[in-house]
């Protein structure tokens, strides 16, 4: 997708740097061979390595998909502990070797807290250059609305995903609109089923990752890769006029969300900078869902810091 221009635009040549564990070196080399065999005109080079310094050297955009996956019997705490170590190490390689102003998207779970660890251990990288992926949830929300209304997904916009990329996220359709033969209308009006919007829609989007894992016996891949391309493309090339998207960014306290966590907000992007959409009305229902997700992120942050501290004490 990247080498076909879906992330950076159809005229932008790319050099792909791919990092994997040493034991995956042969498989990674196989991917490198396939990229060459695909004869992609935009692809001007491939670096396939298990050395973090080499992988991060000079990169302008970094999509971090490496993380310790949750296995059966693992507690959330164990998952955070494993990933703190990975993100600490990648932070130092990023800070030392990436191009100045490198833009980072963290995809691996727990994405919001991995992004926070990255920020803490790469203090020279501006916080605004580190983001995490909630575009997958945002796209899932658009997909559910389109199915419900029987309209094309490209005609639905301005859903919001607030909070964590986890089952506490709050998919919010209250500001979304859909284009119909009678013009662009609020989704709330078109659906006319408050209960669906507050219950089924919310829980289907919250649980979609788990439903895909149940069906495929593997985590989402196509939709996650597509969402990662959407996230970076909109960030770098800008969001269409009148449209916002959801991105996990370092909270500045907007909408009463505590600072110091990576939280998904509605954002617009222009000239490579994102800004949180301000002034949207938040009712009591939305407020309580948003607070619930912020509380979970606060707990994840405490667990991550506890682990960082215990590593530092060793
Ligand atoms: C998804 O939303 O599809 C994934 O984040 C799920 C997972 O836990 O890998």
Number of helices: 9
| Principal-axis shape | globular
Q: What is the average per-residue confidence, as pLDDT, rounded to a whole number?
A: 96
What letter string, H or E per element, gives the SSE order? Answer: EHEHEHEHEHEEEEEHHHEEEH
According to DSSP, the number of beta strands is 13
| Fraction of helical residues | 40-55%
Distance between the termini: 43 Å
Q: Detail the poorly predicted runs.
A: none
As laid out across the biggest beta sheet, the strand order is: 3-4-5
Q: Rounded to an integer, what's the Rg over CA atoms?
A: 20 Å
Give an account of the 3D structure.
- The chain is of the alpha/beta class and about 325 residues long.
- Helices cover about 45% and strands about 20% of the residues.
- It contains nine helices and 13 strands.
- The strands form five sheets. The protein has a three-stranded parallel β-sheet with strand order 3-4-5. It has a three-stranded antiparallel β-sheet with strand order 6-9-10. Strands 11-12-13 form a three-stranded antiparallel β-sheet.
- The longest helix has 30 residues.
- It is globular.
- The mean pLDDT is about 95.
